[in-house]
Amino acid sequence: MSRKLILILAFAIFAQTAQAQLFSKERLANLETFDKRFLTWGYFLGFNSYDFKIEYEGPQVEDIAVDRIGGFNVGLIGDMRLNEYMNLRLEPGLYFSQRDLRFPGFTEERDILREVKSTYIHVPLLLKFSTKRLNNFKPFVVGGVSTAWNLSSNSDNPQDNSGGEFRMEATAQFWEVGFGIDFYLFYFKFTPSIRGVFAMNNELIPDNDPNSPWTGNIGSMSTRGIFINFTFQ
Questions:
Q1: What is the pTM of this model?
Q2: Minimal CA–CA distance to 31: which of 226, 225, 204, 190?
Q3: What architecture (CATH level 2) is domain 33-232?
């Protein structure tokens, strides 16, 4: 029997044994009564990557380039048990991010580049749909709506792009969807998750000149992003 065939058979046996151990064998359950609590609390840390969805009006020779710069998140969690498979969650957090916009049609860097730095108070209300617990882990999907207040907004600034100021609305409404896995450890529950967020409103404040070379042909600009959070409860 060749060495390659032996390795394939050994890997197949190992994979089958691992699957049986993971899904079939009874294990000592950690935090057995955790999911029976009506209210639980925790906190999360994570990363974000924000982008813009831009819709144009009229002819557009070249799109506005959006350079995404990763940010980070921190916040609290309040979880209310509805039944064995559903939970209602409130996850207020502070999100720091930056996006760099590069506008076509200019030759000088001061006209091309606009740095959009944002500090959001992000408050989502989410429904969490879980599977049945499998030993010490439980997959889930989550979805809901949220509101974000941009503490870095310059919506009241009378200056616009002609003075170097790119303006955005101070608030945005989102819908969110994601998935993750609850891991029940000896002392706490650890949850990695990934979530997509999509703004429902136009956040752009157009320049004072309706024919502005920066915003004159933009119909709407709305935030979208990806969150990767690590939760501890």
A1: 0.82
A2: 190
A3: Beta Barrel (2.40)
